[in-house]
Amino acid sequence: MRIKPHSLPTSRRHFLRGMGVALALPWMESLPLLGQIASPTAKAANKPPLRMGVVYFSNGVEPEHWWAEGSGADMKLGPGVLPMMPHREDMVFVQGLYNQTAASSPSPHLGRMNLLSGETVSLDPSVIRVGTSMDQVVAAKIGGRTAIPSLVLGIEPNELRLEDGLSMIYGSSLSWITPSKPAMKEIYPARAFDRLVGDGTGRKLDRSILDEVRTDSQNLRPKISQGDKAKLAEYLDSIRDIEKRIEHAAKEERLEGWHPTLEKPDMPRPANELPQNIPDHMKLMLDLTVLAFQMDKTRIATLMLNNDLSQMNFKFVEGVHGALHLDITHHKHVAALEAMHLKTNQYHIAQFAYLIQRMKDINEGETSMLDNSILMCASSLYDGDAHGAGQLPILLAGKGGGSLKTGRILDYLREDSENRKACSLHLSLMDRMGVTLDRFGDANTRLARL
Question: pTM for the whole thing?
Answer without folding.
Answer: 0.85
